[in-house]
Design a protein that fits this description.
Blueprint lengths: L2 H22 L10 H15 L8
Length: 57
């Protein structure tokens, strides 16, 4: 293996390591509840309790 190939492989290994770290620390955006989400949920619950909506199941 040439020195250039070894350098490329070393850099690729470093990139892979960084990507593995990033993947391990990502937050699932679907698990984040915003203030708007909470407000919408509260309004939906009020509507349900007031009989304005019904369950589909």
């Amino acid at each position: 293996m040439t020195e250039e190939t070894k350098l490329i492989m070393k850099k690729l290994d470093a990139i892979k390591s960084e990507l593995d770290y990033i993947k391990g620390h990502l937050v699932d955006a679907d698990l984040i509840v915003t203030d708007d989400d909470l407000e919408a949920l509260e309004e939906a619950e009020k509507d349900r309790k007031a009989g304005k909506t019904k369950r589909l199941t």
